[in-house]
Amino acid sequence: MLGIRTARTSRTRLLAAVAAAALAALTLTACNDDLGDAGGKGTSANSPAPTAPPAASAPAPAAPAPAPATGAPAATGAPAQTGSPASAKPSAKAPAAPKPPSPADGKAVTCEGSVTKTVAAPLTRPVNHLLLTVTNTGSAPCYLYGYPAVRFGEAQSVPPVIEDSKPQAVVTLKPGESGYASVNLSATDGSGAHGHTETSLAVYFHGPSGNESVGAGSNPSLPAKGLYIDDSLKVGYWQQSMDDAVTS
Hints:
Elements: H1 2-39, E1 109-110, E2 116-123, E3 129-136, E4 142-152, E5 171-173, E6 178-184, E7 196-198, E8 201-206, E9 213-218, E10 227-229, E11 234-235, H2 242-246
Parallel strand pairs: 1-4
Antiparallel strand pairs: 2-3, 3-6, 4-5, 4-8, 6-11, 7-10, 8-9
C-alpha cells in the first residue's frame, strides 16, 4: 500500500513539473511577441539574427582620358598648327642663274662712270702730262681694272698703254677713295707728229678681262684753251697712289 502511494505521488510531481515548464515556455513566448509588436524590434528565438548593413563602397575611379593619337598635337589650349607636314619635300626647282653684284649688295663691283667721278688736271711736272683722278662715289668697293681708255675729241682709237707702269695688284677703291692714272700728252722735245689741240675728253673703264670697256664712261672737263697732243700720246695703268701715277 505504501509503495502504491509513493508511486502516485512521484507521478503527480512529474506531471506538475512538466506542466510548469510548459506554462513557463508559453509565458516567455508571449512576452517576446509583445515586445516585437510594441517596438518592431523584438527578435524571437527562431528569428534569424540581423545582419550588418553592407559597407559603403568607394566610388569607382574615373576612367583615364584616351591617349592622343600619334602625330596629333597635345591639348595645350593653343590652336593646332596647320600646314604641310615637316616630312614633305619641296618641289625641285632649277637653280637661279647668279646675278652680277650690285652696289646695293655691298660687294665689290667694277669701277665705271655710274659709280665714280673723274677729274682731269694738267700737270706741270712732269710736263705735258695729264692726271686722271677717279673717286668712288658708290656705296660698295669697286675695282679699277687695267688702264683708262681715253678718247680726245673725235679720235677713232685709244692710245696705247705704258707697259712698265703696270701695278702688282688690281686697284681697289673703297667708297670715297680715289685711284689715279697719268696721260703722256705729247713729246717733250717736240718730236711728235700730228700735234693738235683738243678741248673734250671721254674716259672709259675696262672690265676684268682688260679687253673691253664696261658700264658708263665719264667726260671730265678740260681747260678752256684745250690740251695739245701728238702721236706720242700714251696712258699709264691705274695706280692706288698719286705718286705712283705721276712717276710711271
